[in-house]
Amino acid sequence: MMSTCFSRIILCLASFFVLWLTAAGAAYAAVAPGNVKVGLGVQSGTLGFKTSGAYRLIDKSTEKEITRLEQGVEWQVRVENGRIMLEGPKGHLGPFAGPVTVSELDLSFNILSGSGEALESSSSGQFFVLNGEGELTSFNSVASPYAASPQKKSALASGDGLNLVSLIDGAASAKYRGSLEFRVENGKLAVVNQLNIEDYLCGVVPAEIPPAWPKEALKAQAVAARNYALQRVEVTRGSNYNVVNDQLSQVYRGYDAETPATNQAVEETRGMVMTSRGSLITAFFHACSGGYTENSEDVWLEQLPYIKGKADPYDKNDTHYNWQVDYTVEQLVAKLQSSGYNLAALEDIEELARTSSGTRIKSIAVSGQGTLGEPVRTVISNADKVRHALGLKSSLFTLEKVYDQEGILQGVKIHGSGSGHGLGMSQWGARGMAAQGYNFQDILKYYYTGINITGDYGRSVSR
């Protein structure tokens, strides 16, 4: 992560800037895409935090520093009369209109021309160099870097210092890279973790896929998750956060979830993304396809050229195949009511249409009485709405109706396979392909039709 002390190195060279690594070799600077803002939740009570590394508190409404933070010292944060109050080792601070940020202290570089004009400035969190072997590497991974001019060389603060901030909620605590932002939303305390996108992925990949799975499956997950995050950053610019930390976006568990295997998968695919027709794709993925993926328009609404249905023989597993759910009529009514449908009594449930694969139910109709006793017949489409309305793992199922002797519906027996929406990459399928010797590019090109895999966040030559 960033350096554990705040320092600024100004190098005044006639026309060039050189970073030397311990392995030796001239390098150039590259700047990666910026940070991602992750919504961690909203709290009506008091939260705590403490830091490891170099941090300070910033009042974002004024951009002024409130105080430098001492490592390991716990602070309390709460909302009082619509404003943020802080309590530290020396008492109360505030109130602040907010947001208030627990912000890393950066190691930054100013590159000056011979005339003294600043040409470029970047922090270590987004600073990259090429080593002597021509490999792009993060400055943070360099153990003993130094800057060299024709006259001398100067050691730089090591890039391997790790900054972490712990968010404390009662007895629970979670560590995060990057910075934490506290803001007031509807009278409550909202928390946002802002960090470099590659560091974010280190907390996503092990939360989305078991770290013990084959390496190429982990790398495929890293690329898919990077695509998703970059897309969300682009379409949510100006928002308080880009993604949330659960399945509404993609699961993110911060530093505590990181493992060597998944971090390596992120690093070995650094900057790699999938594109279609020159643009980043929306890289949907799911746990298990049940043997078939689907066209995007069958599950949701938008037709995407790279999300196409196909048979998935690699996905077979004992965890998500051949499940069964039995519902009584009363349980079905409760499920449908919890999904927002006006239904007080259920008389019939009909399958209306299937997806193009023929395996998932795309549309159903439920008939009965509404909450005012009126007759109702409600059509539920597309496939993803069907599975959510019925509370199922997947819309890949068959439905068997159960009647009493008078022909009155008593319930249903549902037999299915799969878990998730069935679009794009199956995580279990990625595991199966990797186990058969396919690499991550093979996996991604199987599940995403006609895509290119490029480096440098989409700016390099296609593979």
Task: Explain how this protein is built.
It contains eight helices and 33 strands. The N terminus is likely disordered. The protein has 463 residues and is of the alpha+beta class. It is globular, with a radius of gyration of 26 Å. 17% of the residues lie in helices and 37% in strands. The strands form nine sheets. A seven-stranded mixed beta sheet has the order 7-6-11-20-21-4-22. A six-stranded antiparallel beta sheet has the order 10-9-8-5-18-19, with no helix packed on it. Strands 1-12-13 form a three-stranded mixed beta sheet, with no helix packed on it. Among the domains are: 77 residues, no CATH class; 85 residues, no CATH class; 94 residues, no CATH class.
Write a compact overview of the structure shown.
The chain is α+β, with helices and mostly antiparallel strands.
